[in-house]
């Protein structure tokens, strides 16, 4: 008698733990009908066990990808092996709301899912246990970290003021194009160095905050003027670099002249009045005589110097 009471007590404890454990437990038979539905599932779905029991899982949750889950459940029964589904593969199986603090980043609960075969006393497998783990905190933290890492990576490549590529990114891009040219010298690539004329006077007359506005507005116009695949960066101060792959010097000069005219025509509005600027540009096409990417950069810089020496607001190449 004592053994019978002890067994009943253990069974009661098991059912109590089953209902209060902090994970979802669902048991379905080989026809996908629900035979067990614990308190976790009741609380998060709003569907009681009395409603869920003996219903088809797919009728109760029509939003579940039926073909996909049926295939997995059938494999669990046929192969008698468990299947694990990470939130990174599929954010959730059941579209439960994420009941997190106001600072929570997710609308729905992220879930890890385990599908386990359940053997009967005679060894047959006709049921599968679906275990649902709430991993919302882990998932949102990982996503936030990944987002922060992407932002840091972007910041390491970007000029903080103009949001153009920075000098480090420029050097990498030049190295890539230079290496490609060495393998295929018949290709044509051009480099442009551009400099705002008399920019120091703007800083001296209006102050550096206004000078920063000018740089940002010029950068926006330059970015809007480049093609997809072109590389544009801030070289330093008021100097910009534009790398034009698969473009001969004649095409680069044409690009520069259109850009120069746009900049000359633009009016930059500030709280200290309207400001007009001009730009000088130097062009160099990559040549076999350039033994390094730095030599190519030097030739573009020399062309810029000639444009300035010849009166500014012009292109030299």
Automatic annotation (TrEMBL):
Pfam families: GGDEF, PAS_4. The keyword Manganese does not apply. One of its GO terms (molecular function) is diguanylate cyclase activity. It is an enzyme of class 2 (transferase). SUPFAM superfamilies: Nucleotide cyclase (SSF55073), PYP-like sensor domain (PAS domain) (SSF55785). Residues 187-317 form the GGDEF domain. Keywords: Nucleotidyltransferase, Transferase. Its EC number is 2.7.7.65. It catalyses: 2 GTP = 3',3'-c-di-GMP + 2 diphosphate. The keyword Kinase does not apply. InterPro entries: Diguanylate_Cyclase, GGDEF_dom, Nucleotide_cyclase, PAS, PAS-like_dom_sf, PAS_4, Rev_trsase/Diguanyl_cyclase. This is diguanylate cyclase. It comes from Marinomonas arenicola.
């Amino acid at each position: 008698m004592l053994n019978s009471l002890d067994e009943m007590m253990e069974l009661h404890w098991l059912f109590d733990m089953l209902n209060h454990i902090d994970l979802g437990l669902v048991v379905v038979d080989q026809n996908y009908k629900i035979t067990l539905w614990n308190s976790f599932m009741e609380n998060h779905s709003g569907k009681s066990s009395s409603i869920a029991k003996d219903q088809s899982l797919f009728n109760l949750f029509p939003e579940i990808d039926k073909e996909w889950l049926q295939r997995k459940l059938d494999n669990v029964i046929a192969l008698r092996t468990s299947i694990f589904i990470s939130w990174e593969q599929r954010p959730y199986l059941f579209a439960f709301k994420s009941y997190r603090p106001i600072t929570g980043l997710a609308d729905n609960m992220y879930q890890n899912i385990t599908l386990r075969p359940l053997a009967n006393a005679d060894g047959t497998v006709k049921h599968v246990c679906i275990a649902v783990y709430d991993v919302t905190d882990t998932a949102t933290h990982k996503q936030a970290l990944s987002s922060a890492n992407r932002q840091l990576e972007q910041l390491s490549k970007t000029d903080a003021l103009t949001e153009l590529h920075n000098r480090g990114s420029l050097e990498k891009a030049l190295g890539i194009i230079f290496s490609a040219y060495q393998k295929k010298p018949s290709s044509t690539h051009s480099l442009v160095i551009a400099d705002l004329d008399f920019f120091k006077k703007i800083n001296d007359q209006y102050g550096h905050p206004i000078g920063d506005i000018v740089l940002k507005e010029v950068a926006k116009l330059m970015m809007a003027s480049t093609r997809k695949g072109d590389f544009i960066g801030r070289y330093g101060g008021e100097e910009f670099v534009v790398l034009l792959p698969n473009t001969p010097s004649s095409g680069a000069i044409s690009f520069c002249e259109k850009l120069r005219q746009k900049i000359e025509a633009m009016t930059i509005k500030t709280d200290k009045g309207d400001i007009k600027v001009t730009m000088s540009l130097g062009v160099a096409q990559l040549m076999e005589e350039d033994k390094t990417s730095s030599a190519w950069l030097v030739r573009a810089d020399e062309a810029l110097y000639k444009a300035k020496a010849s009166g500014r607001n012009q292109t030299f190449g």
